[in-house]
Amino acid sequence: MEFLQRLLGLSSTGKLSTGIREAIESQYKVTPEKASELRTAEKGGSYALRPVRLVRVYQPADLGGDKDSASYDELEGSKAVWFQGKIEKKGQIFLKDIRP
Fold first, then answer.
1. For residue 83, is it left (φ>0), alpha (ψ between -120 and 50) or beta?
2. For the chain, what is the total number of helices (H) and then of strands (E)?
3. Coil, strand, or helix at residue 63?
4. How many CB atoms lie within 10 A of CB 47?
5. Under a CB-based contact definition with an 8 Å cutoff, are residues 88 and 42 in contact?
6. pTM score, whole prediction
7. What angle do CA 19, 85, 16 make, to 5 degrees?
8. Which residue in 21, 33, 83, 92 has the most C-beta neighbors within 10 A?
9. 90 burial type by CB count under 10 A (0-12 exposed, 13-18 middle, 19+ buried)
10. CA-CA distance, 37 to 59, in Å (whole number)?
């Protein structure tokens, strides 16, 4: 199902991929325990006329209420978002630290 969502450019949410987890642990010194709590929301997009996957990494506990997941667009401006960026077609991951 996730493959189909990616293929069609639809938004998807879930646990961190291995690549994203490794990136935030090595670049931003997030502990493995804390990384296991984080979730991602992705959707298709473009950057410099190239197709990419736009990604937001967020802490579900900071969403408020009884929600534990949110779509990429629902996370716009949310303080629950820790990192955002893009995943290039060849798998390169570019994230920006925006933790509150």
1. beta
2. 3, 5
3. coil
4. 13
5. no
6. 0.84
7. 35
8. 83
9. exposed
10. 7
Q: pLDDT (tens digit, 9 = 90+) per residue, 75-98?
A: 999 999 999 999 999 999 999 999
For residue 16, which of 87, 99, 90, 98 has the smallest C-alpha distance? 87
* Amino acid letter, residue 21: R
Q: Residue 26: CB partners within 8 Å, gap ≥ 6?
A: none
- 4: amino acid identity, one letter: L
Phi, psi of 94 (to 5 degrees): -125, 115
Distance between CA atoms of 22 and 16, rounded to whole angstroms?
9
**Per the structure block, which two tokens stand in for 79?**
């303080």
CA distance 73 to 39: 14
Show the tokens assigned to 84.
Answer: 């955002």
User: What are the structure tokens assigned to 24, written together?
Assistant: 């935030």
Nearest to 60 by CA among 70, 51, 50, 74: 70
Q: Please tell me the predicted confidence (pLDDT) of residue 67.
A: 78
